[in-house]
Amino acid sequence: MVFYKKKITFVNCKKNHIQKMSKTVITEGEFKYIEAGEGKPIVLLHGLMGTLSMFYEVMDYFADKGYRVIVPELPIYSLLLTKTNVKNFSLFIKKFIAHKKLDNAILLGNSLGGHIALYITKHYPQLVNTLVLTGSSGLYEKAMGDTYPKRGDYEYIKKKTESVFYDPATATQEMIDDLFEIVNDRGNVLRILSMAKSAIRHNMAKDLKKMTVPTCLVWGKQDNVTPPEVAEDFHKLMPNSELFWLDKCGHAPMMEHPETFNKIVHSWFQKHDI
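Below the sequence we write its predicted structure tokens.
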């Protein structure tokens, strides 16, 4: 049952052009998500500092290509602190998949979202048709600094946000302001730290060789959060994977180079009849 729908507008300010996109956030019980298109389901999973808007251009592209694209919001700041970990977020997405009655879905995850996709693939392989991982945690992830998240220091937060991208201009004022607000809440900071520790504990290295699901790896050559060697290790360990690189690109290829990212993934889908 749909309780309410909320329309939000995302403004993407990059390289001297402004693009406005409006999406309707649907709330059904404990779930909040956006959805577009019809066809084979793709579930897009954002990262620890991510938002639904990170996937707008991916969503629009694949909805136009005959896919049903759904982007759920992870309950990063609403779960109990003791439940803020990879396992419980994965169970939340498993429950969401059942709620939406999705069958054999494609999971596409960035950063923590990729880690969640891997955890679901390990424990509930029947739910997963295909994996697309970009800047995924699960093997190794550089911390954003010993003092991170640093409360009350706007310039620090600004620099840390910009450092995630190859082009600092990708980090919009709105993005920086939102993160600054988040890390100035003590409860949020504790959840972020709890989640980071959980990601380390749930290292997937020993599990990847058993994952035979087709996997597309798309990585930024200048990713300094999950560096290129992480992508290479994923590729070596996952028996049915292909690796694609994006130059002049950091931790979020779908934001920095959305057109190229979409074309790479779609061509790979076509190649494998996905």
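The radius of gyration is 17 Å.
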